[in-house]
Structures are given as structure tokens and as C-alpha cells.
Amino acid sequence: MSSAHRLARVASAAVMTIVAIMALARATALPLAYHPSPAARLRLSFSARPERIEVCRTLSAEELAQRPEHMRQRVECDGKFASYRLRIDVDGRPAGESVVRGAGLRHDRPLYVLREYDIPPGRHAVHVTFERREQTDDDAEAFAPAVAVGADTGIFAGRAQREAAEHARRAEAAIPKRLQFDTTLVFAPRRVTLLTFDAERRALRLFGAL
Amino acid sequence: MRILERPARRALAALDALATSAYGWAWNPLHQTGTVAVAMLLALLATGLYLVLVYRLGAPAASVARIAADPWLGAWIRSLHRYASDLFVVAAALHAFRLFAQRRSWGPRTLAWISGCGLFLIGLACAWTGYVMAWDTFGERLAREGARLFDVLPIFSEPLSRIFAGDRPVPGAFFFVNLFVHIVLPLAMGIGLWLHVSRLARPTLLPPKRLIWAIVGALTVAAIAFPAALGPAADSFTLAERTPVDLVAAWWLPLSERLPAGVAWSAALAALIAALLVPRVTRRPREGSWAPSHVDPRLCTGCNQCPQDCPWDAITMVPRDDDRPSLVALVDPARCVSCGICAGSCAPMGVGPAGLTGRDQLTALRSCALTALGAAVDSPIVAVCCAQAPVTHVAALRARGALVHQVPCVGNLHSSVVELLVRQGAPGVIVCGCPPRDCVGREGPKWLAERFFNEREAELQPRVERDRVRIATMAGGDLRGTLAAYDDFARHVAALRRPEREANVELQAECAPPALAEDAS
Ligand code: SF4
Ligand code: SF4
Could you give the ipTM of this predicted complex? Predict the structure, then answer.
């Protein structure tokens, strides 16, 4: 190979390498649009336990007698987990509506809400309702009645009371039947406003608001 | 899909020619895309080791910003890490394209193809998690897209997307799992790589050292000159108008973002199935030029050479079923890719795919090249060219007056062919093969040189003047190199005395094993 040819090859190799490097550097950091519109965003995000809607009855003494002692549960409940309707209106116009259920095949896991709505920047009236769809009411009173303290004995002593307390605790931990959020907000361009469920106050509230 | 092979082959030839004209065939990185990908994995391991030491799970964005701001070490190591990952993706994609275009994606190569698809996917997943580690706007974009895609699958009861909702800080567990996956995936790649080359007798894992250093050097220069982009730190409450996007390692992102998650999964699945089906739809019936090699036990002397030369470990030595004391070679058709390398390795010409054994080669030679040689007034130089050689090069040699004899691969070439040519009056024989790293038979040029000049079994006999034989490389894009090699050889041959033509050369009989020769007498 002549030296002129060698030089030409080195030059072409250098040019090609530089072009390849620049193409690689460019292609690896191409600024691509992500949120091209200046819209703001209202984000609803929370998780909570759905209510359990149960119909309970107290078993009679004869029914209990037919069962082995470890299965003598005095109150038997049958039911399902509640589902909810979530609706958002912005400036009086519906922005979205959906049904929310607990996770899992039987919907017995906590429910998770994550909804996002693009909203033009500026001041807007936001109205959010989250309410149970089922009309049937829980039969919590079924736990209260007449299982006298001391009715269960031995290692089963106090079982009916414990079950009633557990039922009440679950009802308390569940999300309320109806939640509502109604206010006017100022939305800044490309900023997210987050609405969440405050489990302590048992209410919807803006994230970061006191 | 086979209909795509021809245009793919043309495109590959054009790319190869371009790269060869710029770098020369010895430095052409396109001839070694597979090994370049492995070299990039090593570069990623080396740079990743440093990065993982300075990365902080508790403050991912801040720690990466600190690394990027360190001009002495962090900035360029991080950039080199990123560019190496991009080059890995490019090299792996080109490697697959090359094998597809060269019809090397089916039969015994199926395992390599499928494991290669797996390695490519793991590489993309690694890049994905790596970007998420940086937790800038692009990392967050990738994480959100990943969460969106996974949320439609019935895997997690809580939607992953809630991690980034902003009502709580992104949990450290998320970054821990991400880092864990980013570190574990390369281990899976190690296993995948082992599978990928497991069928090969002598896998070549790395490019030549000088090419490794050249590539790593070029990437380091790129890392210093164009530090890898780092977007602003991710913020759940800000919608970035645009983000830097790595269109090499995350080429799928703009596509996926435009599709509903279910459709994106379906498209990805369809693409994966199409890729995995390539070996099936490109396979050929194992007949004709795709027939597996075959041993003629009468000719096999049990010398154990073909098992050593076969690049695919397809030949074993087994006991004979006649009364001769030696072992006999046996080809496993399931491992044989019909490359024909064994044909050139067998002195008694007892092995090779149908039509390619040494005996078949001598017959073919007699029926065309020798006839032409005999008819020529002034015997021309014979150029034995690989069938993969560019037609323009072959035509140029013809135009120079050479008598061209083509063989499927120079690694198949039995030394007797060259011997016969010389003994029949050819003043010189130049064997033009592909660049060694671009041989479809993997080791053709290597074994050819060993047999001709280093007395490897099935060697070119000492009675053949070495001055009359030369090996050259014929690479698309380097016609000048091909012609220079030919012209140099022609000048050399012109200075030699004219050879004498021997009568009645019967190399088949000369090469027969003693047992068979005795039988014949
Ligand atoms: S190279 Fe030929 S003689 Fe030697 S083992 Fe193979 S088939 Fe038999
Ligand atoms: S043709 Fe011969 S060398 Fe090639 S894979 Fe088959 S047995 Fe091995």
C-alpha cells in the first residue's frame, strides 16, 4: 500500500469514526417531546380498604350444637366488597367517571385509585365525588346482640365479642361510603395538583395542604 | 421472511464495502459485530463497577448529578458506560442482521439465534434499568412507561404507577430493586453468552486487541467530547415539556408511548415471536448444498484430523464396524452446518458434504478449470476464489487474465486441488478468501494457511513449489487490495521458470489409504 493510499485510508477512517461518534452521541440524547401541551394536570391518587357489605345472622343454639366446638362461630356473615363510583367535574363539566373496585380477583384487596386529567392552566372549579354504588347497608348490628359474655368457654371464651370487635375495626378502616371534594383551584402550566385520601381525617384533600 | 434475505445480503455487502473502504478489512468492525458486543459488555462491567460504588440508593438523582459533575473520573466513566451500552445494542443488532443476511440463522445455529435474541432483550432491559437509576426526567419517563406497561398485567395488585404519584417519596425499595435487576441481568447475560457459543468448537469471544483499544479509545474520546446527557432531576409534580431520549438503547420508547399498554405488549410479543421464528422460516431442506457432511468409512484412516478442524464440534471418532484397527469419523448431522471445512482437512478425501469432498473437488476441477487451463496457449494464473467474493473482484481478476475457479469456501479447498493445478501447468495459484473474521465457515482462511504453509494435516505436499502458491484476502470495498495482491503475485510468478505439465496425474489414487490401494490392486 502506498503511503498516499495509507494516508487516505487513515483520513477516511478518522472521518467515518468521527461521524459515527457524533451520530451516536446525538442519537443517545435526542430531545423528544414528552408533555408538549402546557396543560396542567389533576392527579387523584390514593389507596384504601373497600367496605365489606355483609348480611349477618346469629346462629341458634341447635345449629351450634351440631357443629364441632372449634367451629361454633355464633355470628355468620355473608357478603361482598363494595364498589365505588368516582366522578370528576371541572367547571361544572364532567371530566371523567369510572367505577373503582378493590384489587384482586374477588376484589377483596385494597382499592387503588390513580387517575390523571389534563386541565388548561388557570382557575377552575373542581368537584370530585367518590361514593359507594351498592345501596344495601351493612348489618353490623348483627354483631352487637345477645351473645352474652361467658357464653363461650375454655379457649373459646370471648370469641363472639372478639369477632364483633374485629368487624367493627374493619368497618372503621374502610373508606367512607361517600367522599366529596369541592373547591376552586389555580392550575399552573405543566404542574401537577395531587388530590389524595387522608386516612386520618377520612376525607379527600389536596396533597401538601394542611 | 426468506424473501428478505436477498435485499439484506445486498445491504450488508454495501455496508461492509463502505466500512472496508474506510478502515481496511483487518479493522472492519462490521466483520466482528458479535465480538464487539462482547467487548462492550466487558467495558460496561468495568465502568459499571466504578459507578455502582459511587451511586447512592438514598439519593439517586443527586449522586448521578455529582458523578456527572466530576470532570476527572465520574463524567467520562459515566458517559463511556452509556456509549458502551449503546454500541452493544448497535453491534448486537448488526450481528443478528449479518447472520440473517448470510443465511446463518437456522439448523444447528438455532440455539445461537434464540439465545442471541435473549441476550439482545436482556441488553435492552439493562439499559432501561440503568437509565432509571439516574432518575432524571428521562429515567422517570422510562420508569413511568415501564409501570404503565406492567400495570395491565395481572402481576401486582397495587399499580406500579402509584409509586410515582407523588403522595409519598419514591420508595428506596424501588431503587434497590432497580439496581438489583441492573446488576443481576448481566449475570444472566453470562449464562446466555455461554449458551450462545456452546455449539462452537473454538468460539472467538473478543475482537483483536488493537480493535478493542481503538473502539474503547474512540468511545472515551466521545465521552470526553460529548458527555452523556443528564436531564433535570425527576419531579412528580412537574410535567417536562421534553426529555433527552436515547433512541439507540430505548428505541422502543416513542413507539410504546403512542400505543395503549395492551397493544404495546401485543406488538412486542409479535416481534419476539417473529424473531424466534426466524430459524424455522429460514431453514432449508438438508440436501444439495445444505446436506450435512458425510464420512466414507472406506477412506477414513482414523487420523482424527477432521474432528479437530470442524468449527462446530460435529465430528467424533467412533469404533469401526469392520476389522480395521483404527477408529472412524462420524458426523452428527444435527450439529453440522455444511460448512465443508472438514473436506479440506482429510488427506484421503473421505469426508465432506455431498459434492464438496476432496474427490468431488478434483472432479469439478477436471471438468472445467483444468480443461480451460489445458486449452490455454499460455497457461494463466489460476485464482481460486471463495463463492462469497464480490462479483466485481472476480470480474476484475478475469480482466487481468486470471483463470478463476470458484469454491464455496476456501476452507473447503483440498490441497490436492492446488497441487493438481500446479502439476497440470498452472504457473501460479492464488487462493482468494474472505477476511478471516468474515468467513461463513468461521475458520476457513485460518486452516487454509495452516494446511498450505504450516504442514497441518492434509497439507500441501512438499513437491508443490510454495513460490507458485499464495493466499490473499478478497474483501468487498477493497478492490485495490485484491488487485494489488494479484499483481504482486503475477510479477513474482513471471520471474519463475515456466512449469512443466505432468501427464496422468491421479491424485485420488495417490491419496487413497493403503488398505484401499491394496484392495484395488
Ligand atoms: S480427516 Fe479423514 S481420515 Fe482423518 S478422521 Fe476425518 S474422515 Fe477420517
Ligand atoms: S461440514 Fe464438516 S466441518 Fe463443517 S460443520 Fe459439518 S462436519 Fe463440521
Answer: 0.84
